[in-house]
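Journal club side-thread
Mid-discussion, someone asked how the predicted structure for our own chain would compare to the paper's figures. Pasting it here so we can look after the session.
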Amino acid sequence: MRLRDCNNTEDFRRLAKQRLPAALFHYIDGAADDEVTYRRNTAAYEECDLVPRVLAGVEDIDMSTTVMGQKLDLPMFFSPTALQRLFHHDGERAVGRAAEKHNTFFGLSSLGTVSIEEMANTISAPKMFQLYYHKDKGLTENMIERCKDAKFEALTLTVDTIVGGNRERDLRTGFTSPPRFTLGGVLSYATHPYWTLNYLFREKFSLPQLDAYVSEGTAVATSVSDYFSTMLDQSMDWKAAEWVAKTWGGHFCLKGIMSVEDARRAVDVGATAIMVSNHGGRQLDGGRSPFDQLAEIVDAVGSDIDVICDGGIRRGTHILKALSVGAKACSGGRWYLYALAAAGQPGVERAIAQMRAELERDMKLCGARNVDELTRGNLRFR
């Protein structure tokens, strides 16, 4: 299978599986416990049908939207994800350049493998930084200050990772950051020489947001789940979120909001956006999907805060449905990580171009000339 054969997210997934050692593929692909929520995140969209309008004069389509003060050409963006240079040696650089080309948000993780400063200096796309609230308050404050100095457009605090989810695929494969070249995994690494040679002989793997403060994840191999459980502050509360918002002082998003009550509190602490997200089903299995929760959250706070639907998106129709419910934009991780692993920057650019083409076609077929014309009148829930 080659990049030119990839026409949808599932195709990119298959090519990523072909090109990555097993432990790395299953880290991207896996989720918590029985992975019920992971599957539900996508299945939820299929229980909602589209009702198209015709004869609407749709030659020209405007897909732009404004999120956290930034006008985006596309209402879909790259949710911040960790460890990207483990999946392709260009990592965040490749994803950032794709975001730049399509003028949409690029998200950089606290566990990112390229520095805040490099991304600020080399990528002109609007940038959000995803903050993990560490036990080491000096580390947390340092990352905020670095983002302020680098003039990132938004800061996103992830609020659903105070302990790591039970990611059983990682337990079975032995996935860690950095990877351990164990006897059990040698065959998989040996049969993927392109990845292995790039990892061993290109730029040394690092976590530049963290490595001045902690050795876990770079000098000391650890799973992401163990990192969350040991390094992040389980006492984080609404006062902590308010402190982050005030310390940051700019557009501020909470990622991992799933209830109306929490959405309202996000408004109260000064957030300008929320990401309705369950961390891709990687934390609490059995939880609701973001799309299932979207309507009641939009109805409660949609006039006060930008609501972003994060998770489970595989098709342009999924974006169209979320926007019709009332989301300002959508985001996701796996859809572009598969493409990154499959083919680096050309893969990510192909994936987002296909998503853009799908959404444009779907809007035309539904008789919508811009995102403001997408309403719940387009939808019927089964």
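Post-session note: Residues 334-365 form the longest helix (32 residues).
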